[in-house]
Design brief:
Chain A: It is found in: Cell inner membrane. The complex is a heterodimer of chains A (547) and B (319). In chain A, helix 4 runs parallel beside helix 7, helix 14 crosses helix 15 and helix 14 runs parallel beside helix 16. Chain A contains 21 helices and 20 strands. The mean pLDDT of chain A is 88. In chain A, a hairpin with a 2-residue loop joins strand 14 and strand 15. A six-stranded mixed sheet of chain A has the order 6-7-8-3-9-10. Chain A has a six-stranded mixed sheet with strand order 16-17-18-13-19-20, with helices on both faces. By secondary structure, chain A is α/β, with parallel strands linked by helices. Helices cover 38% and strands 25% of the residues of chain A. Chain B is mainly α and 319 residues long. Chain B has a domain of 171 residues: MetI-like fold (Orthogonal Bundle). Chain B contains 15 helices and no strands. In chain B, helix 8 packs antiparallel against helix 11. The longest helix of chain B is centred in the middle third of the chain and has 36 residues. Chain B starts with a helix and ends with a helix. The chains are: A alpha/beta (547), B mainly alpha (319). Chains A and B meet through helix 2 and helix 4 of A and helix 9 of B.
Chain lengths: 547, 319
């Protein structure tokens, strides 16, 4: 036990909540969780939102977000109980013995200071090294993490570099003071898959080269399997299963773990596209801004969607997929090209469209939270399109609302709740019901499962597929996630920098030979197996050597 | 610095000039539609119609309004502020010395009030919701809630009369020795400071607290930095834009809103000068004072905008 770095025993964490209708009370967020970590090892903490993984992950820094506080157990770091430390002791530990890499490096860097000043701040503050020495270390880390122009990278401000680079800079910031332990809190979740694989490899190399121990927090089992020695599965603040990465992936013992491993296993037989598309987008070119300063975002985009089928539009951030949705809905009139809907041309501007045009084309958004009026009940939210489009009132409307609630598999008890009283998955279901209430022929789904936990997302996808059968509605499904595409699409359009680089039925698009970009995209999606990362990187380097 | 930022700053500047021009029109038209006739009011009720007509002629009041406007504006652009009706003296020198007095008072008041309010704001954030925070909030709010004449009289009574530290009459004159002058303005400056302190302090506190929720403040906390260092280095630079705005508003108030304080302390500033001449219906003086006040207000707000632009690293260091 001599080389045990971190030993967490019977950790209990509570928070005070202030619900609107009840008196404030304490709830338990983490209940009786124990684990230990040896020097130089990586432990993955995995679970869905609300599992308490970030809360546990921050405990070795004696830090609680919001009103969270540790009320029981021990956190032994380097042989001493850090929960007994006073403010000064805790400050000496943070940034020196334990460092933190946040999910969104873009938000975690201070926009007002240069990267270098921030990267070396903790190192200099704790006296681990002088300013010049710390800068040397930082440049060396920039180089090792594959950042461009390592000598000059630190002179830039956070907004001047990309998200993937910021995430690496944050890793460099954590490594700079040579800590014993780094906490990675969903470090690649906000990145595109093609960027994620590079950052993941950089993090893994850095951990191996420096011999630092790490807690790796994520909701994505396939990602954590690539970097961890051990994995701790959490749910509702309790331990579900704890084992080596290989055991958890290949031989899960608990039902919940098995569900996590087999997530994204929905299969969907593709339908052949028909002759008369419900929506036909022809040679669309669109730009933001006016005149010569306009930024082109869509270049000559053409796609068709057959009635009752799903077209998945896939691409990374900035590829123009959401802009395509804005053009189709009329929010952004295109510069050139035309859109035909159900055999009739669609006006370019939202304001010039008929009420039927509006009704038959509905949208569901990524953030169900912000897409609903927080002061309306579920009944009002779903009833509104019924009143607006069909002039339904009273009992007739209530009966239809009830029907829709049954279709989205939510019971009676939800009708008088407010959005704040629903879970993420339930909110998204209400948004689906609201879209369906208009009896649309096409629903544009913009990253509707991206903000949801994998198991909940699976449920939503199953529901959407089911509803498509019942209502014969077509979907334009915008996503960055290949697994989601496999699960739901009949046809696929791959977008890259405003252009459709590949388009066809699902089997055509996902079968070789691939164009370069689609190949990269497919090869970057983490697979649920140990050693995938190394294989993927080897494949990629062989390909680039071959070219 | 990019060309983009130069363009933004130039735009603000052009907008300021345009605004000032518009205000000059409003002032001129406004003073001209005031009821009553200048010639009549100079000569009094018993004047014969012929005398009034003669005076109107010699004052140029019979010319069309727009001609008089352009003559007035042209004069000001050439540094000629016109002649006061009440005493026939040129307005320029008198107004300049009054403006100098007002700016002198505002300058020393600002020199105390701005740093003091920011430091108090920082301390309030450091001890948020604690005793010190509440004490700072309560005392500055009390100061702002009391009418300024009341604060002025309180200071006169306690500091000037009872303690005898400073004089209660802030009369200054030309060639007054610097220390005497400082002694004279001590109490009005203190009153001004107390009046504007609360807004600036509370805005500093609110703006920093707003930023304290950011992820980068958490990052700083997890680096083991001390609380005051986090506030000063990581929160303050990102909260500067709203703070600059309220500072500029307070500075503007110190220049254009001090009539009451000038009256209480018998301080020969611009405010008193303008109010005196409103009473005398001396329209040219009122117009000139109005224009100068507007210029001060617009300039300070323009500076606030420009500093806000400069404080944004995204604009200062484009991609």
């Amino acid at each position: 036990m001599a080389d045990t770095l971190l030993d967490v025993k019977n950790l209990r964490i509570e928070a005070t909540v202030y619900p609107p209708d009840e008196p404030a009370h304490d709830i338990t967020i983490v209940d009786d969780v124990s684990f230990s970590l040896e020097k130089g090892k990586v432990l993955g903490l995995i679970g869905e939102s609300g599992a308490g993984k970030s809360t546990i992950g921050l405990s070795p820094m004696a830090y609680g977000r919001g009103g969270v506080r540790i009320t029981g157990g021990k956190v032994m770091l380097n042989g001493r109980d850090i929960l007994k430390e006073r403010t000064r002791g805790v400050r000496r530990l943070r940034g020196k013995e334990v460092c933190y890499v946040a999910q969104s490096a873009a938000a975690a860097f201070n926009p007002a200071h240069k990267l270098m000043d921030q990267v070396i701040e903790a190192t200099v503050r704790h006296g681990s090294a002088g300013k010049d020495e710390a800068k040397k270390r930082a440049v060396d880390l920039f180089r090792r993490l594959g950042l461009p122009e390592p000598e000059r990278f630190g002179n830039r401000y956070p907004h001047q570099v990309s998200g993937g680079q910021l995430q690496r800079a944050m890793t460099a910031m954590a490594l700079c003071s040579r800590p014993d332990l780094i906490i990675f809190d969903e470090p690649t979740t906000a990145l595109d898959v093609t960027t994620q694989i590079d950052v993941l490899a950089a993090i893994k190399d850095a951990i191996r080269d420096t011999g630092v121990a790490a807690l790796y927090i994520t909701h994505d089992l396939a990602v954590v399997a690539q970097v961890s020695d051990d994995i701790l599965v959490l749910r509702h603040g309790k331990k579900v299963e704890h084992g080596t990465a290989r055991q958890i992936i290949e031989d899960p013992q608990e039902q919940y773990t098995r569900d996590l491993v087999s997530v994204r296993s929905i299969t969907h037989e593709e339908k052949k596209p028909g002759d008369s598309p419900i929506l036909s987008v022809k040679n669309i070119t669109a730009a933001y801004g006016k005149g010569p300063a306009a930024v082109p975002v869509l270049k000559d985009v053409s796609v068709d969607i057959t009635a009752g089928q799903t077209l998945a539009v896939v691409g990374e951030s900035g590829s123009g997929k959401s802009t395509l949705a804005r053009v189709i809905t009329g929010l952004l009139p295109p510069r050139e090209g035309e859109i035909t809907f159900d055999g009739r041309p669609l006006a370019r501007r939202l304001g010039s469209r008929s009420r039927d045009d509006l009704r038959e084309l509905q949208m569901i958004y990524q953030m169900a939270d912000t897409a609903m009026n927080p002061r309306h009940t579920v009944r009002t939210i779903i009833g509104r399109p019924l009143e607006f489009y069909f002039n339904m009132r009273g009992k007739e409307r209530d009966a239809r609302v009830q029907e829709l609630m049954d279709e989205i598999e939510l019971g009676n008890g939800f009708l008088d709740r407010y959005p704040a009283e629903l879970s993420g998955g339930q909110k998204q279901r209400i948004c689906i019901a609201r879209a369906l209430a208009a009896k649309p022929k096409l629903i544009i789904c913009d990253e509707v499962t991206s903000a949801l936990d994998p198991l909940v997302a699976d449920g939503i996808l199953k529901l959407l597929l089911n509803l498509q059968k019942i209502e014969n509605v077509a979907y334009l499904f915008i996503t960055h996630d290949i697994a989601t595409v496999r699960a739901i699409a009949d046809s696929i359009a791959v977008m890259y920098r405003g252009e459709v680089v590949r388009y066809g039925t699902k089997s055509e698009v996902l079968s070789p030979p691939f164009d370069d970009y689609t190949d990269l995209l497919l090869a970057s999606v983490p697979e649920m197996k140990i050693g995938w990362l190394e294989e993927a990187l080897k494949r990629r380097s062989m390909e680039s050597a071959g070219n | 610095m990019g060309a983009g930022i130069a363009k933004l700053v130039a735009q603000r500047f052009a907008l300021g000039v345009l605004l000032l021009l518009a205000v000059s029109v409003v002032i001129f038209v406004g003073t001209n539609i005031l009821p009553g006739d200048v010639a009549q009011s100079i000569l009094g009720q018993s004047a014969t119609p012929q005398a009034v007509a003669n005076l109107r002629e010699s004052l140029g009041l019979n010319q069309p309004t727009y001609v008089r406007y352009f003559e007035w504006l042209g004069g000001i652009l050439h540094g000629n502020l016109g002649t006061a009706l009440s005493n026939g003296q040129p307005i320029g020198p008198e107004l300049l010395s009054r403006l100098g007095n007002t700016l002198f008072l505002a300058f020393w008041a600002a020199l105390v009030a701005v740093p003091l309010s920011i430091i108090l704001g920082l301390i309030a954030v450091r001890h948020r919701n604690g005793f010190i925070d509440n004490l700072i909030s309560a005392s500055t709010l009390a100061a702002i809630s009391l009418p300024e004449f009341f604060i002025g009289y309180l200071l006169i009574y306690f500091v000037a009369v009872r303690l005898g530290w400073f004089t209660s009459v802030a009369t200054v004159y030309q060639n007054m020795p610097f220390l005497d002058r400082m002694n004279a303005i001590a109490l009005p400056a203190a009153t001004l400071t107390l009046v504007v302190l609360a807004q600036m302090m509370r805005m500093t506190r609110a703006a920093i607290l707003n930023v304290m929720q950011s992820a980068y403040v958490e990052t700083a906390e997890l680096k083991g930095l001390s609380r005051f260092k986090i506030i000063l280095r990581h929160a303050f630079p990102n909260a500067i834009a709203p703070i600059i705005n309220v500072i500029m508003l307070s500075l503007a108030y110190m220049v254009v809103g001090v009539v009451v304080i000038e009256v209480i302390f018998v301080y020969p500033g611009m405010g008193q000068y303008m109010v005196d001449h409103v009473a005398k219906r001396d329209i040219p003086v009122v117009q000139d004072c109005g224009l100068i006040f507007a210029a001060v207000y617009i300039t300070l707000n323009m500076l606030a905008d420009i500093f806000s632009i400069l404080s944004n690293p995204r604009l200062r260091h484009p991609k």
